[in-house]
Amino acid sequence: MAQNINAQDEILDRTRPPKPGPPKDVQFPDYFDTTLPNGINVLVIENNKIPAVSVRLVFKDAGSFYDGDKYGLASLTAEMLTKGTTKRSATEIAEEIDFVGGSINAGSDWDGSYISLSVLKKHLSTGIDILSDVAQNPVFADDELARVKEQRLSSILQSKDDAGHLSDKKFNKVVYGELPYSNPAEGTEATVKNMTSKDLRDFYKMNYYSGNLIIAFVGDITIEEALKLTEEKFSNLPHDGINRVNSFRFNESDGTTKVYVINKAGAVQSNLRVGHLGIPRNNPDYIAVTIMNTILGGYFGSRINYNLREKHGFTYGARSYFNPHLYSGDFSVDTDVRNEVTDTSITLILGELNRMISEEVTDEELETVKNYMTGVFPLQLETANAVASRVINLKLYNLPKDYYSKYISAINALTKQDILDAAKKYIHPENITIVVSGDAGAVKDKLAKFGEVLVFDPDGNQIK
Amino acid sequence: MGKEIITNTVKFTEHILQNGLKVVLTPDRTIPSAAINLCYHVGSKNEDADKRGYAHLFEHLMFEGSKNIAPGDYDRLSLQKGCENNAYTTEDKTNYYLLVPANELEFGLWLESDRMLEFSVTEDSLKIQKGVVIEEKKQVFDNRPYGSVSLKLAPLLYRNNSYGWDTIGDVKDIKKATLDDIREFYEKYYVPDNAVLTIAGDFETEKALRLVEKYFGNIPAGRYSVSGLRNAAEFSDTPLEGETVKTIHDDIQLPGIFGAYKIPKENSGEYFAFDILTDILSTGESSRLYNELVYKKQLVSDIGCWAEGREFSGLLHFYAILMPDVTIDEVQHEIDRIFGEASGGAITARELEKIKNRIETRHAYRVQTNLAKADMLSHYKLFYDEPEMINTNMKKYSSVTLDDIHFAAEKYLKNSGRVILNYLPKP
Across the strands, what pairs with B37? Predict the structure, then answer.
């Protein structure tokens, strides 16, 4: 059984941290990457730590960005993939994959549509049969679509209860203006009601083809197995889809600050978004911006969290984000604060934004964040699926292949001047949008000092 | 060395220091990082009825400084060293973790041991953290749709013991907490003989053990032997009598049903049967509740049930969010029909096999990270003195039979008491 150990009598200096051992190099794991003649980009991230395999299908640049005026189209299309094929009914798909203890999930975001399979190695052939079927043979049946639409309408209705969701919706609308990112990816009551199975079929035809398909095989699987499965199971998609010419106008602010209040009578906290347009994922300054934002509000030790939570106790937490998409992005400070300090919190946040663009960060701040990012990097490589997500991002956002092998050295090369430059270039306190979801009656009057205050109900109608 | 346990999955060694601190070590060289998990055997069930929420408030205060760590320095130093930290509190335990780069293991043990060594929280920190906890309660419970469920269920489920309130506690108790209250709590529970330390990750067992001994070995054992609620016999609980139904009006669009039955505690034979039964009923789109009520009848947009195991009790929770224009009675009737069929022995061999496959997959993915392994090992060591449950639990699940499920459901669901909260939109 467990043994006893004697306490040592050595004098122990607990007053200062012990010295670290020699640092260990962290290598981004090797992976296999090839593009087949039919256009499919096959990735293999091999790892046999656990006897399981994930297969992730990613259709590049085939997400909600292309909903047009049918908001919710990409996400409904993806959701319907598992609701019936030419070979299997929705019930059979659920029953077959559940029976082997696996899961198949389909969905979309702004920049892509996804279908992923997770299954134990011994059930891979069952899993991949179903995955191949739902990816290539969906039927988009009317009765199934009717069900999915009712579910979606109920979830849109429910989302009106969620202060954070209401804030995001208004913030995106204002900040992105004419860019599609300003629209609700889940759809609206009107667009979902009007959606037809033909709409979905058309979207599927234009966006699901082998020329924009990435298949990542992750876990207990060899390159040979992966290539064989790709050839056997995913050869039925057309090579080409829609030929796109993107043209869109970036939003231009009128240079005034406006405060948008979404009234939730009786709310005991205000949910805040304070921000403006940000950067696309492949912006060359992305790493500098990330480090700058981490110091500003990106982690627990950041200025904004320290100020609002640790110094004032106004909130359970406050963070800032550069949220990047393929063609643009946004920047926002997000928090929930108690009603009485809503305006004070906004003042503190704006103060931190102004400080960020007017003076260099301290040596300690920069060194801490460098150490932190280096220290937690291995945690982002701990599972095969975590590695796969990063490799897929390289592809999805057209980043250089050596991005992650140079990631740590790129961070460590940054100077205080680089951070200040990034802040000056990408943070604009003079051109800010403020969104508050909360009790308008309790908080509205004190917000006029920031700019014109406009009040809305949770449905988006302006209240005079 | 302690005993070496070799299984097909997680290998570890067990040790105990002279002051009573239990130690579990599980090397894993996947990445140059280690998870330090320190789990104290204290949770909200150890609180007095007029000091509700102190265990969780205390969790916040443990980040506010100790003998050699100035206020704010726990976080500041841990970030500087490239570490990630956090903590959580349940009814039964308070769990702290620190993820360190492999070359900073000694730093992590130094940092973590100091707050077991000596309490040093200031009035200022106490005041700020009371504010943070009160905002946490608002954000997580008060300002969230259906967010008050656990606050309202607890006192109806447990009328005569300290499971009768949620871990977040009561704002008026939190506001009146003094440094003396907090210090008393610390001296009673934050002692080596009331904790398990697990380290999972990139280290050599012998070296890690020497470091553990160096930093934790000379922390004195508890001044009094830890008292209060050490076994089920000291914890009085009564079965639920009949059905308690309450209606709650909330800021919501769609009505919801939230209910619970009492079932045997975690790690009992029946608990494993209920864990499987609740998966059969609600995991995956082919499960009975989803397939019948979401898919076929379209009465609800979301439905589920799960078994919650505690040290001295267990609960079978169920909930449903209704589709527009559907009534509570209609949905409750359907849930009761499906539960009734389960209690009547209607679960099939195929359903049982399906969920055993599901559990096998879930287990494979769960033991992938150092953090998850350390959390599980600490838990099983703390409550059952049996960390090898991380490997052997699978056998307990595979041995559950259809009869086990039938009899457990018949005994604890059929004709048993339960509590139901019906959430309705404010009129």
Answer: B97, B198
